[in-house]
Each structure stands twice: as structure tokens, then as C-alpha cells.
Amino acid sequence: MPWLSDWSYPLPEEDLLTWTFDHCDYDKDAPIYIDLENPTRTLSWNTSRSIVRRLIAGLRAAGIQPEDCVMISSFNDIYYCMLFLAIVGSGGVFTGANPAYTSFEIAHHVKTARAKYIIVEPELLPNILEGSSGHVPKENIFIFNVRGQPCPEGFKSWTWLLEHGEQDWNRLTGKDICRKTSVARLTTSGTTGPPKMAVQSHHNATSWFTMVNEISEPPWKITNLSPLPLFHVATVPAVHCGPLRKGHVMYLMRRFDLEPYLAAVEKYKISLLGMVPPLVIAIINSPLRHKYSLKSVRRVGCGAAPLDKDSGERLKALCADDCTFTQVLGSTETTGVFTLFYYPDEDDTGSVGNTWFPNSDVKLIDDEGKDVTAYDVRGELCVRGPSIIDGYFENDKANRESWDEEGYYKTGDIVYRDGKTKKFYIVDRKKELIKVRGFQVAPPELEGVLLGHSDIVDVAVIGLPAPKNSDAELPRAYVVRKPGSNINEGDVHKLIAERLASYKRLTGGVKFVGEVPKSASGKILKRVLREEAQKEQAAGIGYMQSKL
């Protein structure tokens, strides 16, 4: 039997912007968003609200209609959050592109999200133009030259959107309309093909933030620092809305760089940090940890991939004496965190939570989809509740595969729940995603690119375990050449490098094989390939990180 929620919590029944702006009791002229690189660039509640209302008027003047999707392609900036809020407030739907995307990936993103408008940094414009050609007209592309760059000839600066007065946002009231109205289409890695678009609603966003941040709040002042990319679910709505909702100061990094990050923690007395395992590993293994103090940090949450308990303890030792370091489990489909430790609970066992959200249910299933929910039993975690999205955008097949008849989302994480402590632990991943520096790499996407080459007749991609002191798994391709072909490892690496972002490169190497192992039904037996790789590792042969 599933573990049904045994407690409830009142959740918002209003749109995201009303929830963000209309319930604030702090100094509305105090800086909330601060640019870490240039701390004189700040945004208060009053300034943010005015800018958002001006941008809403500008987007409507540009012709945006309800449910039109607007894509942002940019590195982090405090005005990125304003654009997000304005897109949603105008009735549109946000989607964020990774600035590392190639034109090939941009093309897929634009088509899958059905983006009709694009706001892009000038340096990223060439890839955007190539990738969006035939889908987004030039007049619907605005240049996000927020750092004083010149606007390319023939394009409008994003500041044009600020020149049409102010208009209020679309206000929504009621759980049903807020659940049906979209906020964002967020990229989620596919396991049966290229990335899909998870549709986050107003109700998903407000419910998630409420359940994470407003049930058990610490008594001390919260000051945040975030290097996490603003296109990622980890920041939607946490960074785009949370600071304005709560009055918590947020220092934003344009891009992550370890020394400025550590220096900022010390200088601005950062008290709360959200991390991913690669960041933890980078800090605890860097001599810079002795140069800068993290003693102001009183709470750290870590997610995106499991982290060994020793690394967590080493990070915690650098922070305040009363700091809690805990891990979480979540995904784009769950709007972020789903299992967790509420403050002031802590953990030193590597668990991903001793509870889950209120108003929500969980169960474990076996490989055949049968309910095996029980303590100390391994199974695929399935979840349902107000923070779980209703599905992927225009992808009925994926929706049928990922949700069961009872409305549970199948996470793909193999977990067990300890019968004594009631804590959850991740032990495996049913979905064969590869985790590289906090990003998810879907093997089918790499396989699709490689199979597009005329000299490759079959391929399988797996992830090799991360090397010691690293949290980047290593994608490896097993390639079957066309008879008579002389395609080599360098050619394969070049193909991936030309088509996909750098974190998707085959750092685990390329192996040419006579055939890819498959079942009688034709399913690739990746388990066999992983076992072969493990034997190679044990023997010390054929297992090294590619330098290409």
C-alpha cells in the first residue's frame, strides 16, 4: 500500500505574481537582488515591481498572447528574474535555454517548447539565429544587452520593452485555474529520446515554494548566494520569486567561479546555500577553503545527484558550528525538492530525506510496476501531489510512460526507506541518465546524434562511474562501424563536440565493437556494457577518462 500523506498544509490558490508581490511586510526599498560582480546593481521590491509591470506592457505591445512561449538565452543576471516574472505576468510561458547550447540544441529546444519570442544576450545571438531559423521571426528576437553591449543592427534591445508604460499582471484566483495555467516549459532529460518540456503551473510553483520554505523557517537572518543557472528548475521559482516573496537578500553570480564564490560567502556573511555535488567536491578539495571562511553558513541543502556522506561532513565542518547539511531528492517533474529534512533536522548518513511534502503521497514499485511499498524494500519511487507537474508539453507518449493510472509520477530513482529511522536512500537509477557536473545527460540524445552519421550503424551510450574526487560521470559510446568504414575515435568525439554542449562529450571514451548487446526484443542490454566496464576497471584496462 502507498504511503499516503498523514498531514496537510494550506497552500496558495492565486497566481505566481500576486503570491510573490502582494504579501510582503519588509522594507520595500531595501536591495533584494544584488549583482555579485557589480554590487551597485541592485533591485528592491519597489523597483522590481515597477520594472516587471513595464516589461509586461512591453511584451503585450510586442504582440504576446496567452500561452505564447518566450525563451531566454542568457547567463545569470538580476534582470533575468524580472523578465521571467514579466513573461508569466503577461500571460506567456517561460522557457530558458542553456547558454552552452549549440545551434542544433537550440533548434530542438525552440521546436519542443514552441517558442515564439526570444530574449538573448548579444554574444549568443549567432547560435540563436541558426537554431531558431524558420521558427521565430527576427522581429520577435530581443537583445538582452544588459551589460552595456551594443545592440546588433536590425534588432531591438530588450529596453524597448520598458517604453510602453506599466500594466498589471494577469491575476488568477482558485486552485483549478492556477493548476491549469502554465508558468514554464522546462527542459528535462529524456530517456527515450531528446529532452522533453516539463510544464510547470502557477499552482506547482507556489505550492512547492510554500512546502519547502514556509513550513519550518529558521530564526536567523537568511542571506543567499546563487551561482545556479536561471534556466534550471533549481531556480524556478526559488530564485526568480523567493527573494521577493520573503525579503531575503539574494546575491547572484553570472557564472560560477570558485574563488569569487568563496570570497562572497565570507564578505557578505551568506547564511544559506543550495549546492550540487560538484560544488561540494570543488570546495572541499580546494586549498581556497583555507583562505576564505564559511563560518557564516548555517544551512546547506544539496541535490541533483547523491553525495557520499564523508564529503558532506567535510563541507559541514567548514561552516558554522550549528550548520545543518542535508541532501534532498527531486526532479524537474517534481518542481525541485520532494523528499527532504525540514529545519532544524540534520543527517550524517547520506540520506535524501526523512519525510516528504504534505498533501502528497509516495509509493515504491518493482520492475513490473507492482506496488512493493514497505520499509527496507528497494523500489522505484513514485510520487503525486500539488508540486508534481501534470505532464510534458505535447508529448502524450512520454506522459503515458511516466505517470500511472493513479496519477503517480515514476521518478526513475530506486530507493529504500529505512524501517528504523524512516529515512530515504537512493541506491540506483532506473532511468539511465548520466550526471555530469550537476547536468543530466540522456544517452538517447547522444545516440541519436551518432546514428545520424553515415558510417555508424549502431551505438549505445552508458555512463561510467565518476573518478575519485569528482562528481562527473563519464559518458562512453560503444560504436558499430559500417562495414568498410575507417571512422575513428577522433571523428566520433568531433561529431559530438560539433552538435552538443561540452558537458555531453564522451569523456569516458569511444569503444568500437562488432555489435551492441541486445535482448530478443531488440532492447539494448546496457547492464551488460556496464558490467563489462566494471570488469575493465577492476583489471585496470580500457578505463580512463578521455582527454579529447
Question: How would you characterize the overall build of this protein?
Answer:
- One of its GO terms (biological process) is secondary metabolic process.
- It holds the Pfam family AMP-binding_C.
- Residues 445-523 form the AMP-binding enzyme C-terminal domain.
- Belongs to the ATP-dependent AMP-binding enzyme family.
- With 548 residues, the protein is α/β, with parallel strands linked by helices.
- Among the domains are: 27-171 and 221-273, Rossmann fold (3-Layer(aba) Sandwich); 434-539, 2-Layer Sandwich (GMP Synthetase, Chain A, domain 3), CATH 3.30.300.
- The protein has 15 helices and 26 strands.
- The protein has a five-stranded parallel β-sheet, with helices on both faces. It has a four-stranded mixed β-sheet with strand order 2-1-11-10. A four-stranded antiparallel β-sheet has the order 18-19-20-21, with no helix packed on it.
- Helix 2 packs across helix 3 (78-89).
- Mean pLDDT is 93; it is low at 543-548.
Number of strands: 26
- What is the class of the domain at 27-171 and 221-273 in the CATH system? Alpha Beta
How far is the N terminus from the C terminus? 50 Å
The low-confidence parts are: 543-548
* Main sheet characteristics: 5 strands, parallel
Mean pLDDT: 93
Gyration radius, rounded = 23 Å
Family: Belongs to the ATP-dependent AMP-binding enzyme family.
Domain AMP-dependent synthetase/ligase: 27-393
GO molecular function: CoA-ligase activity
Domain AMP-binding enzyme C-terminal: 445-523
